Amino acid sequence: MADTIDMVDKLLADLKNIGGVEASIAASRDGLLIRANMPKEKFLASLAAMSATMLGAAETATTQVEKGLPTRVIVESEYGRLIIVGAGPKALLIILANSNSSLGLILIELDKSAKKLKELLK
Amino acid sequence: MVETGIPKLDEILGGGIPKGKSLVYYSQPGVEGEVFGMQTVYNTLKSGGNCVFVVSSTIPDIVKGLFKEYGWDIDEYKDRLCLVDAYNPLIGAPSDEKYIVANPDSIESFNKIIIDLIKELPPSTIVFGSLSTIMDLCGEKETIEAVRNWNKMAMLYNHVLVYNFTVWPYTNQTLHLIKEELFNAVISIGSIAERVIFGQYFGILKSDWTKETKKSMLFRVLRPGGIKLFIPKILVTGPFDAGKSTFVHALSTRAISVDRLGTTIAMDHGHVDYKGFSADIFGTPGQERFDPIIKLLSGESMGVILVVDSTNPADFVRAKHMLDITKSYGLPYVVVANKQDMPGALSPEEIREQFNLPDDVPVVSAVAKDKLGVFEAFEVLIDKITGGT
Questions:
Q1: In A, which residues are within 8 Å of B271 by CB distance?
Q2: What is the ipTM of this complex?
Q3: Strands B216-222 and B226-237, sheet pairing
Q4: For A13-60, what is each residue's pLDDT tens digit?
Q5: What residues pair up with B271 in beta bridges, in sequence order?
Q6: How many domains does chain B divide into?
Q7: Which residues of A touch B267 (CB under 8 A)?
Q8: Which one of B192, B197, B296 has the shortest CB-CB distance to A32?
Q9: Which listed residue, A55, B101, B170, B228, has the most CB atoms within 10 A of its CB?
Q10: Residue B4 placed within a domain
Q11: What is A2-120's CATH superfamily?
């Protein structure tokens, strides 16, 4: 139990180390915060909930029009990016990155981490 | 009775710890267990009692700093708090405290101070910051014999003894004695990973002055604030325009909503700190076209607040249906009869009848926009969740 927490923390710390990544968060599909690596803490729980809603809404939208499941949700905003990927049936991963970050690199690492998180939470 | 100051625990213990009894906080390693004893120290002082705190795992100055971190000003009660320094002599540092255990690696040295204090002081709450460190230094058998003796003496002199104990790999015999024999009450503190919620819980393992209870509570430790009971998710749902967002905002210390054209399209999310509880509130949209999102958000709720517009019985069918789609049956829920200030509002009794609600489902009348009835509904639900009275 405590070990799983450590392992999730390690996974999040690795993601945080990618250039331009400002925060990495693991949340449940239904919007509860699991663990986070993020300096500003106040908004965390809400961010987890909002991200789960976005990914869920995206999944509902694309599957309803028979386009299959979305690979990820990327939000490009004024000062950065918010990226959400599913990590198995229970969880999802959220990344906050600044505008200078390399999107390609982040996505590769994020997909790997999502697979790992899925295993950790089995 | 001495209250522990831990939310809900005193209630379950029938008011607290009776004079002359002993209690141990039995915590798994890696869990924030030491704050339990400290919260009991602060609560005793705050309610006018005398307190002894035996500091054995770090220097007293650090402990004082910790109290400050939790927002507990112990300086104010200096004259009723006696710190016993059982650490500085160990590292050969001078101590500013009046009571010092000269050789913290010998149980006789502890005995001398503790027994004197037990005999001299008026009935007090004596808290051991870490029984496990004493055990590590003085030996398991020796410590257990001493504790047995202290507990007996405390009984004679009407003190309350409280121990923090961390369950390191001691011998089975030692752990058995601590769990089953040595103390009047054992509160276990541990961590759980239930599906995706990583949390800490406490529960009563044993208490010889109350009825057995198996209930355990999730908690988190706030700085400042100390131990708060933690409810990861309370769902607020109900038909369109019932006042769910207003309700979430009225209840929450801080809250956000995703609103467009005056209606919630994604969700409301709020956080409540109230009477020792810390809860996150999820508010769903109401319109049917958002049902997929409602389903998505409703997993793992611990309780549901169903908000209805008391002036609009036409929507009650939808309200019932929403309990269905949130899979809320089986979970504790309360019905909030909102908009009671409007003409034509049905009374809570009329709503109960229309809904055909079972007797144990509370209906709370409310005017969410004026914050009326909002905290009552929260409290009633919390009571149902924690199995309270």
A1: 45
A2: 0.75
A3: antiparallel
A4: 999 999 999 999 999 998 899 999 988 777 888 899 999 999 999 998
A5: B254, B280
A6: 2
A7: 31, 49-50, 53
A8: B197
A9: B101
A10: no
A11: Dynein light chain 2a, cytoplasmic (3.30.450.30)
> Mutation test of the interface with chain B: which of A44, A46, A47, A51, choosing the one with the most B Cβ atoms within 10 A?
A46
Once rounded to an integer, what is the mean pLDDT over residues B192-202? 73
Please tell me the predicted confidence (pLDDT) of residue B45. 97
Measure the CA–CA gap between B160 and B157, rounded to whole angstroms: 9
Question: What is the domain-level CATH number for residue B115?
Answer: 3.40.50.300
Say yes or no for a CB contact (<8 Å) between A1 and B193. yes
pLDDT value, residue A2: 61
Specify if B240 maps to a domain.
yes
- Average pLDDT, rounded, for chain B: 91
| Pairwise CB contact (< 8 Å): B297 & A29 | no
Integer Cα distance of A29 and A91 in angstroms:
5
Answer with the residue of higher pLDDT: B26 or B217: B26
Q: Are strands B277-283 and B263-274 parallel, antiparallel or unpaired?
A: antiparallel
Average pLDDT in the B262-269 region? 82
Q: Are residue B70 and residue B198 in the same domain, yes or no?
A: yes
CB-closest option in B198, B256, B297 to A31: B297
The least confident of B136-140, B292-296, B313-317, B385-389 is B385-389
Measure Cα distances from B127 to B40, B45, B83, B148, B168 in Å. 8, 12, 10, 15, 20
**A45/B192 CB distance under 8 A:** no
Cβ neighbours of residue A119 closer than 8 Å, sequence gap 6 or more: none
* B365 falls within a domain: yes
Contact status, residue B326 vs residue B280, Cβ threshold 8 Å: no
Interface test with A, best of B218, B236, B249, B296 (most A CBs within 10 A): B296
Q: How far is B347 from chain A (nearest CA, A)?
A: 34
Domain hosting B288: range is: 231-385
| Average of per-residue pLDDT across B252-275 | 84
Interface contact B196-A90, CB threshold 8 A? yes
The minimum CA-CA distance between A44 and chain B, rounded to whole Å, is: 11
